[in-house]
Amino acid sequence: MNALSLKERFAHSRFFKGEKATDEPVLLNQRRIFILPTKRGLYFVLLLALLLLIAFVYNNNLVYLLTFLLASIFFITIIHSYKGLAGLIISKGQTKAVFAGEAAGFTIHINNPLNIERYNLQLKLQHIQNQHISLKPQSKSSVVLYSLTHKRGWHSAGTVTISSTYPLGLFKAWSPVQFNLETLVYPKSTLQELPFPESPYALTQEGINQKGSDDFYGLTEYKPGDSLKHLHWKAFAKGQGLYNKNYSGASSAEIWLDYSNTPGYTTEERLSQLCRWVIDAHRANLNYGFTLPGLKLPPTQGPQHTQQCLEALALF
């Protein structure tokens, strides 16, 4: 198997010399399909050599006949192995962003436009475990291939390899395909729970008074990240739950997430904490502003704002 892997890598390097990654569907033809004997195929060749030697030593016509019959099956299998992949159309699908440490899923579409059934097709990304499928004549299928991520930023799928050992397992036919297929990896969210930062300067920019500076007008249910100094302790002591005291003119549900005010010894630790705050603020339906060196997003909320903040963290 090691020798086969070396041959595969040599074939890939020869094939991809000058080959560019593509966004277009790829048709598998004689230029793209490689065929090599498997371990079983090599044992089969050894058996043929042994039978031929026996036939020669004992001058046995029946053994000659058996040897040539098996040899013909061996060579015909090459054609069927090639036909197992020839004519397939491979195209890339959509991907979703993930957090660092999670497995990124890359969707691959396989189209079988011919009246040939395809058996035991195997797809994989580099050394990741294979996904097995079979295709009926004139049918389509999709497979999600996973690749483990380790750091934030763009994560490329790399080489997509489709292979088959049909029909007898004597040969392995495979085709490497390189797509412009990548997904965005967000920073890994920290497990440490820290309260949201106090950012009074963000409120005073628009003439808004700090929390608690105006008349009391009501209570709202406590949300993670709210300031503890506005808790209604009397209600909590009576067992009525956690509530915040709100004041007219206050913007109690608006916070600023600023890189310069984020705790952490390294850049990645700060980004990890910011990622956690963005997720928590989104879940709590808070209006939050977002600041990175060279980027400032005004306070708002919603999936689009959250995605914009996470993308900025991933590409910082």
Query: What is the C-alpha radius of gyration, as a whole number of Å?
Result: 31 Å
* Sequence of strands across the biggest β-sheet: 2-11-10-6-7
Task: Report mean pLDDT, rounded to a whole number.
Answer: 82
Number of helices: 7
Describe the structure.
This protein is α+β, with helices and mostly antiparallel strands and 316 residues long. It folds into two domains: 2-186, no CATH class; 200-315, no CATH class. The chain has seven helices and 17 strands. The chain has helices at 2-15, 39-58, 61-83, 200-204, 233-237, 267-283, 303-315; strands at 26-27, 34-37, 89-95, 98-99, 103-112, 118-125, 131-135, 139-148, 153-156, 159-164, 171-178, 182-186, 216-221, 243-247, 254-258, 287-292, 295-300. Strands 2-11-10-6-7 form a five-stranded antiparallel beta sheet, with helices on both faces. The chain has a four-stranded antiparallel beta sheet with strand order 1-3-5-8, with no helix packed on it. A hairpin with a 2-residue loop joins strand 16 (287-292) and strand 17 (295-300). It is elongated, with a radius of gyration of 31 Å. The two termini are 42 Å apart.
